[in-house]
Design a protein that fits this description.
Blueprint lengths: L1 H14 L5 E6 L5 H9 L5 E8 L18 H4 L8 E5 L5 H10 L7 E4 L6 H7 L3
Length: 130
């Protein structure tokens, strides 16, 4: 039901005449939701999909290993239908969450935030994005 709901939200935004949306896969883990969404959603209605997790390597730091998840399945096999961007962000860090709000979740572009694996403190931190 999550992918069906995401498809419906993107369709509703497109029918309302909104510009292409950004999608944030909060605490994405390996990135299954984002990868499926990239293949299933209409390209013309989605700008990018951001995979947010503290375990991703920091792409701006050479040799960064992050928390152990490699980005090879995201970046090393050709382009995705909708671009996928991994970001190493710790949702429990106030400073990092503010940066997420300022740089990704911004007006005027509509943003859809998905939090499939949120529990406990992570769910509370996600609600603070609003």
């Amino acid at each position: 039901p999550v992918l069906a709901r995401l498809i419906a939200w993107v369709d509703e935004a497109a029918q309302a005449g909104e510009p292409p949306v950004a999608i944030v896969d909060l605490c994405s883990g390996f990135g299954f939701l984002a990868m499926f969404a990239s293949e299933l959603l209409p390209r013309e209605h989605v700008e990018k999909i951001y995979l947010i997790d503290k375990v991703w390597p920091n792409r701006n730091v050479p040799g960064s290993k992050g928390g152990g998840i490699t980005t090879a399945h995201i970046y090393d096999h050709g382009p995705w239908a909708i671009p996928l961007i991994t970001l190493q962000i710790d949702v429990k860090s106030s400073r990092e969450v503010r940066g997420l709000g300022h740089h990704i979740i911004r007006d005027p572009r509509p943003t859809i935030i998905c939090g499939i694996h949120l529990c406990g403190t992570l769910a509370l931190r996600a609600s603070q994005l609003f």
